[in-house]
Amino acid sequence: MHSKVTQDIKLMHHEIKGSLFQGIVADQDLPASPSKNVSPSHLPESPSHKSRRAEVADYKIAVSDIVKTHVANLLQAQAVPVRYQAAEALAALGRRANGARAALERALLQDSSVHVRKSAAVALGELGDRQAEGALRNAVKHDEDKFVSQRAEQALEQLFLQL
Fold it and tell me: What domains can you pick out in the chain, each with its CATH number?
């Protein structure tokens, strides 16, 4: 499931990013690779820019809604596969799932399923929020499953390798 969500988000991201750049080039008749002196903030607003900004806003809202849905599934679903898939999907979203840290920490520290806890640790690493350090360190020291501890340790390494 998470691979489908990831593919949908990546496709949406590339379509919007591509249409923004193409619109700037088409509207201003600039070369395909803009120089350092040309930036979107220096270009006049055109109707197409405004509609593209609306597309970007819609994209951000869509990602936010996806994150909220996965957080709800992670915290409220009775079925382990649903919680597991939610944690995996949040991991796939990476930094775009920035509103999910508290839910992922809760899942890491409290979920009854080793699979959900392991995926929550991975997701916290992918999220890149160093505020997750305490929960990850707690899991390294206290989780009874060695795979959860290992994933939490890898997530800590990932957090501190990122700049």
Answer: 2-161 (1.25.10)
In sequence order, which residues have a C-beta less than 8 Å from that of residue 126 and are 6 or more positions away? 90, 91, 92, 93, 94, 95, 97, 155, 158
pLDDT, tens digit (0-9, with 9 covering 90-100), for 38-75: 444 444 555 666 688 888 888 889 899 999 999 999 99
| Under 8 Å between Cβ of 96 and 129 | no
CA 93 to chain centre: 3
Q: How far apart are alpha carbons 74 and 105 in whole angstroms? A: 11
Are the C-beta atoms of 24 and 43 separated by less than 8 Å? yes
pTM: 0.69
Provide CB contacts within 8 A for 35, sequence distance 6+. Answer: none
- Note the residue count of the chain: 163
Concatenate the DSSP letters of all residues of 110-121 into one string.
H-S-HHHHHHHH
